[in-house]
Every structure is written in structure tokens, then in C-alpha cells.
Design goal:
This protein has 582 residues and is α/β, with parallel strands linked by helices. The chain has helices spanning 20-24, 49-53, 65-73, 88-91, 97-106, 116-131, 147-156, 170-182, 197-203, 214-224, 255-259, 275-282, 317-327, 359-367, 388-396, 406-423, 442-448, 450-458, 467-470, 475-484, 523-547, 549-552, 554-569, 577-581; strands at residues 8-10, 30-33, 36-39, 59-61, 80-84, 111-114, 140-142, 187-192, 210-213, 267-273, 293-299, 427-432, 437-440, 488-495, 498-508, 512-519. A 5-stranded antiparallel sheet has the order 13-12-16-15-14. A 4-stranded parallel sheet has the order 6-5-8-9, with helices on both faces. β15 (498-508) and β16 (512-519) form a beta hairpin.
């Protein structure tokens, strides 16, 4: 069973197509559609990394506060209990746990219990199963405690799928314990730093009503007007049915191993945290043929759950570890409470098999983005993929768009700009801050004479040529615009026996300028200029004419008619073919 919205999603209106999420996603579970990055839920492992690194916060975590609030409203005579992740000690280091419990109860909960109680049961289950395993040939065991790692292994490293311990996670185990104590109809809300726990509540709604983050909890406090720093607490504000034991160490890497009875001398225990570190650690392990069992405590977040995606900070790991260790000490854990609870379970998560593409398919996809040979494959990573070939495969799979390739877009833009410049009837030149030509069209060369045309023919566009040498008398105009950033529009300059109208404008302020030249000595241009001047006269004087019309009488109308007649007599549409040729 799933909620209508996935635990992690993209706010399309905020996504700025930077592709950072594509670049950072460890399993490339991102699809670009209409320049917006969408999470592919079937591929996502819910590590939450995209949420952390999105520069503008377009990646969102589903807010389940409404679900939790409704559970409280509809509980009737049943109990509502919070399953609080043991990483609370790292998140609320300056808040005594009794104050935290008191504040949570003020929201309407009947009790607060540590998820670590379920972890104690899980550790016992693992100890028992490992110790019963024959060691004629060593086996690999992977903890099922981290839902992101379970998804990673099941989906992307299925060779180890059967190695995941076949028991409930600490949260789901804790939920079963809570229901045993307070009744099957008890409403259970999880609170912690983990996004992936939301998927557990989606899949097991009969056990967990909703999974909230610490961020959600603080938001709930604020909405309810509860100040956690000033709330009063009493001796009755305590964890129920009792405080957890050593399993409170679960949120730090290596903490789970410390709670397992590792007396079996033929089992090796290893802890690895961080998705990429986990993938590296598992590489080649499928060929293991040693005599010792290997138990792997694998966690998606580097350093453990204390650095979960919804922890308030991923810094000060040592201080957070210390806070969790100090909170884990207890001497009143009642193991009778967790007896006779069945936690055998195995998730049916299908492996991800992306289609393999032939060399010719990849080459065709590369050609579609202008990469015609090996030298064109820059592997710059701008699209978010490690190589151009990976990007080509993503194109074929429908996960990427051509516009993601920066070199391709740059080439397209350059081609469009070149085509536009070439077809313009006016002379066009673009100059950098070193007074060197970046691009020009043939018309620009023709306006400057046959010698410049020869230069253009030898090097189309005249890239690198000095504008100071080509236009020595007028190069100061380019320098002026480069220095001041202020455009020069419609300025008449003399060049040889011509009068050129030039407009120089900033393309990139103080870096690049563009200029448009037009020969205004030609008859057609002269007539067009007369038309424009006449229009300007009308625009500037019409309001004045209207204001003094009562003085001028018919003369006002005659003035307007005269001006309009000038325009009509020089209308470009009526210029004869002979005039155009001249």
C-alpha cells in the first residue's frame, strides 16, 4: 500500500535544471522532462541525498503531519504512541529527554517509546541465526535495519539479495512490540531523521500510521505553540515501557554490531556507511569462499543515522556520536517484553535491469547531440552523467534530454547566431575586450572595402582580427562602450566616401560588444531614413499640434497632412526595383 505521493518528489516550478541531482544521485534515479528533474520512484532508494544537495530546495520530502494528526483525532479510546528514533539524542543534544517527551505528549500522544527497543529484538534474532549457521562455507549476512540499503541491494546488487537478514527492521519490530503492550489498534507514529522510513509506513500501514522527520516534529511544535525549551517536565515523562539498552547505539556506524552477541568465533563483523562506500565494499564479495561468516552492518548515511538526510546538521559527527553513546546506558531493560514476538520477514523488491544498448545505438545517440567521433566526447559531466556514453544511454532510456548536453546546446546556439549574422543585410561585428573580432558577417567586410573582403575570404568571420587595425579611426567607439557599458546608437560616421550609421552595444558588459553598420549614403537607405525622421517629427510634435490647434486652425491639419505625405512619398513598399538596384 502506498500514499498518493512518493516520500521524495520534485517541485517542478522550482527546479532550475542544474542537473546536480542527476550528478549526485548514486543510482541515477532521475529523469529530466521538460527541463525539470523528476524522481523515478521505482529506481529510487530513498537515501535523500538529492534533498540535501538541491541548491534551491526543489527536492521535497512528503509531509505526513496531516496523517499523524488525523491518527490522533481518530484514535478514540485507543492509544497513540510515538516510536522515537535513538538519534534523538544527537538531534536534541541540549534538550533533556524528559522535556522532549513532555512536549511530544502535549501534541496528544499517550506515550513515547524508543525505536531502539525493537532494535534489541533484531540484534537478538541476528545473534541466534548467525550462531546457528554452519561454517563449512562462510556466508554473507547483510543487516535489514537500513531501508535504503535494503532497496539498494535488492534493486542494484541483487546477487546479495538473499544475504539480507530475513527479519523486520527495528522500526517494524518495535511497532509489533508496542501493539503487544498497548493493543493491536494502537496508533504508532515514527519520528526520526530518516526519509526511507516513510516507505516502511507506506508498505506496512497496519503497523505504522506515519513516519515523520525531526523537521516535521519541530514544525508541529511550532504550529501547536509548544516551546520545547521552556516546556515543563515531571518524573512521569519517561520512555515507556522502559528506556532502551545498548541498541540505542544503532544510529552510529558500528553501533549495531556492539549489540550483537559476537561470541561466535567464526563470524567476522564489518560496518560500512555511505552508499558509494557500501557499493565499493560489496564489489567482488560475491566470489567469497572463506570459512568465516561475514556480517555486514551497512548504512546509507555516512557516519550512521545521526547524519540522516533530515538531521538538522551533518556536522559535528563526533559530538553526535558521543551524545548517542551517553544516552544508551541503562540497567532496567526487560527482555521478557520482547519475547515471543515473531519478526521473520522478507521484502519482495524487484531488481532493476536497465536495457543494454549496442555500439551502433550508442553511436547514433551520440551523433544526435553532435558527437561524431571520439574527440567530441568531452566527458565533462555537465549533464550529470560520468561520460558522454552514459548520457547517450540515458537518452535512449528516456531519462535525459538533448538540452542537458552543454556542448551540444552551445553548438546549436552558435549555429543559430552565425546563421542570423550571415543573413542580416547590415554589417555585423562582435568584438571582445582585447579589441579582437569574435565574429563578423560578409556584409561588414563589404562595407569596409575590397581589401577587407580579401581578409574575410581568407578567414570567414575574421576571428582574431584586430578591430583597431580594421577601423583605426573609429575603434575608440568600441573602447568607449567596453569601458562604460553604455550603448552608442545610430551614430553617423564617415568611412572613405561613405557615411555609415553604427550602433554599438554591450553583449557582456565590459567583456564583449556587438556593432551593426549600415551604409546610409545609398538611395534606399536615405529614403528609409527620411521616413523614420518624418515619423519621429509626427510623434514629437503631434501632441503640441493638438494643444495649439485652436490657434492654428486648418494649418494644424495641413502640417500633419504634409508630414504624412513625406512618409508616403518615401514608403519603402513603393520604392521601384530600379531604385533598389541603385
Amino acid at each position: 500500500m502506498r500514499m498518493s505521493q512518493e516520500p521524495v518528489f520534485t517541485e517542478n516550478s522550482e527546479c532550475q535544471d542544474c542537473y546536480k541531482c542527476v550528478r549526485e544521485c548514486p543510482v541515477k534515479a532521475i529523469k529530466i522532462r521538460n527541463n525539470s528533474a523528476h524522481i523515478i520512484s521505482d529506481l529510487c532508494i530513498l537515501c535523500g541525498h538529492c534533498v540535501e544537495i538541491c541548491p534551491i530546495g526543489a527536492k521535497k520530502v512528503r509531509n505526513d503531519l496531516a496523517v499523524a494528526s488525523n491518527a490522533l483525532k481518530n484514535k478514540g479510546t485507543d492509544k497513540a504512541v510515538v516510536s522515537l528514533a535513538p538519534s534523538y539524542a544527537a538531534e536534541f543534544q541540549d534538550i533533556p529527554y524528559r522535556k522532549l517527551i513532555s512536549a511530544i505528549k502535549k501534541l496528544g500522544f499517550d506515550a513515547v517509546s524508543e525505536t531502539a527497543i525493537g532494535a534489541e529484538k533484531v540484534s537478538g534474532w541476528i545473534s541466534e541465526n548467525i550462531n546457528q549457521t554452519s561454517c563449512e562455507r562462510g556466508q554473507i549476512f547483510i543487516s535489514s535495519a537500513c531501508p535504503s540499503i535494503v532497496r539498494l541491494v535488492k534493486k542494484y546488487i541483487p546477487v546479495y539479495g538473499d544475504s539480507i537478514t530475513k527479519c523486520y527492521s527495528p522500526l517494524l519490530t518495535h511497532a509489533k512490540i508496542i501493539k503487544k503492550i498497548w493493543g493491536e489498534n494502537t496508533k504508532i507514529i515514527f519520528i526520526g531523521p530518516c526519509i526511507a522510513k516513510k516507505s516502511e509506513s507506506d508498505m506496512y500501514p497496519d503497523l505504522v500510521e506515519a513516519a515523520l522527520t525531526f523537521e516535521d516534529l519541530l514544525s508541529w511544535f511550532k504550529k501547536a505553540g509548544i516551546d520545547i525549551n521552556t516546556v515543563e517536565s515531571t518524573e512521569n515523562d519517561k520512555f515507556e515501557p522502559f528506556k532502551a539498552g545498548n541498541a540505542s547505539l544503532y544510529p552510529v556506524d558500528g553501533g549495531m554490531i556492539k549489540t550483537i552477541d559476537a561470541s561466535h568465533e567464526k563470524t567476522m563483523f564489518v560496518s560500512v556507511s555511505g552508499v558509494n562506500n557500501v557499493r565499493n565494499a560489496l564489489t567482488g564479495l560475491e566470489n567469497y569462499n572463506g570459512h568465516k561468516n561475514i556480517f555486514l552492518e551497512l548504512l546509507a548515511c555516512e557516519g550512521g543515522c545521526i547524519n540522516g538526510p533530515k538531521a538538522s546538521t551533518r556536522k559535528s559527527t563526533i559530538l553526535k556520536r558521543n551524545a548517542v553513546i551517553n544516552s544508551s546506558q541503562t540497567d532496567n531493560f526487560d527482555f521478557e517484553v520482547i519475547k515471543n514476538i515473531e519478526i521473520d520477514n522478507s521484502l519482495d523488491i524487484k531488481p532493476v535491469f536497465e536495457a543494454e544498448h549496442s555500439h551502433s545505438e550508442i553511436r547514433q545517440a551520440l551523433r544526435s547531440i553532435g558527437k561524431l567521433d571520439k574527440l567530441d566526447e568531452l566527458n565533462c559531466g555537465g549533464c550529470g552523467y560520468d561520460s558522454c556514453r552514459d548520457f547517450a544511454a540515458a537518452l535512449i532510456n528516456g531519462k535525459a534530454e538533448k538540452a542537458m548536453c552543454l556542448s551540444y546546446i552551445r553548438k546549436i546556439a552558435q549555429k543559430k547566431a552565425n546563421a542570423l549574422i550571415k543573413t542580416m543585410p547590415s554589417g555585423v561585428v562582435i568584438v571582445d575586450n582585447q579589441m579582437k573580432i569574435i565574429e563578423s558577417n560578409r556584409r561588414f567586410a563589404e562595407l569596409l572595402g575590397s581589401d577587407i573582403v580579401l581578409v574575410f575570404n581568407a578567414s570567414p568571420g575574421m576571428e582574431g582580427a584586430s578591430i583597431e587595425k580594421i577601423l583605426p579611426q573609429h575603434q575608440k567607439l568600441f573602447k568607449l562602450v567596453l569601458e562604460t557599458g553604455e550603448d552608442i546608437l545610430n551614430k553617423d560616421v564617415r568611412y572613405q566616401n561613405k557615411v555609415l550609421q553604427v550602433s554599438i552595444f554591450s553583449v557582456e558588459k565590459n567583456q564583449i560588444v556587438g556593432a551593426v553598420f549600415q551604409d546610409v549614403t545609398k538611395p534606399v537607405v536615405q529614403k528609409e531614413r527620411v521616413v523614420n525622421k518624418a515619423k519621429q517629427v509626427i510623434d514629437k510634435s503631434l501632441s503640441t499640434v493638438q494643444q495649439i490647434a485652436y490657434l492654428l486652425g486648418e494649418n494644424a491639419a495641413e502640417t500633419e497632412i504634409l508630414l504624412k505625405s513625406i512618409i508616403e512619398s518615401f514608403n519603402p513598399d513603393e520604392i521601384s526595383e530600379g531604385d533598389k538596384e541603385n
